[in-house]
Amino acid sequence: AHSYPAGIHFEDSTSSNSTSISAFREDRIPNTSTSYNNLKESTMSSPFVRVALTTSKSATLMRAAGKKSGTSLNGDARNDLIKKVLFDAPSRSPVRLSQDDLSRHETIERAWKLVRQQQKQANAESLARKFEMMRKANAELELISPVLFKHSQTKERNAVFPRQLRTLTDTPSKQIWNYRNDKSVKA
Question: What is the domain partition of the chain in residue ranges?
């Protein structure tokens, strides 16, 4: 057992590796009131230890973070309450439509699904046509020049995307194109 100033005593438990803390045991402190007040002042200034006072003039040392609350999700009920007040959206009542509005809504939804289906079908047909044209061009290139066909089919090793490529934007660049190739013309 290790004794520390102001009556704090740590006992090593042999049954487990944890250390139990006992403080302010009246049998270990000769003058309870003065030692208690001195210890109270010294431990309250420490950021890591706080004294929880009880009615029998004994105290328990606790961690400064405190115990986690069993009712909160994040460990602190105050934080949960603040988050609930600040970030929870008010519940909205469901929109009630009349029978005519409901039939109009369903008609619009079906029409939109039909438009999306037609767009997907047109896109698939366009891709199929492009792939077929690419296949025909490759077959013709193979007949005309087998060397070029072989080079067109090989992949470049360790090819990476060009890092210096300018991002496409809707606005013009800060430096305009110099048609006269003069170094003095700048935007």
Answer: 2-65, 101-151
Q: How far is CA 4 from its chain centroid? A: 44
Question: Which SS3 state, helix, strand or coil, does residue 181 take?
Answer: coil
> How far is CA 1 from its chain centroid?
46
Q: How far apart are CA 2 and CA 19, in angstroms?
A: 11
pLDDT single digits (tens) 64-92: 444 554 555 667 888 888 888 888 777 88
Nearest Cα neighbor of 111 from 151, 119, 13 is 119
Model's pTM, two decimal places? 0.36
Encode pLDDT of 93-126 as tens digits.
888 889 999 999 999 999 999 999 999 999 999 9
Question: What single string gives the DSSP state of each residue in 50-115?
Answer: EEEE-TTS-EEEEETT-PPPSS-SSS-HHHHHHHHHHHPPPPPPPPPPPHHHHHHHHHHHHHHHHH
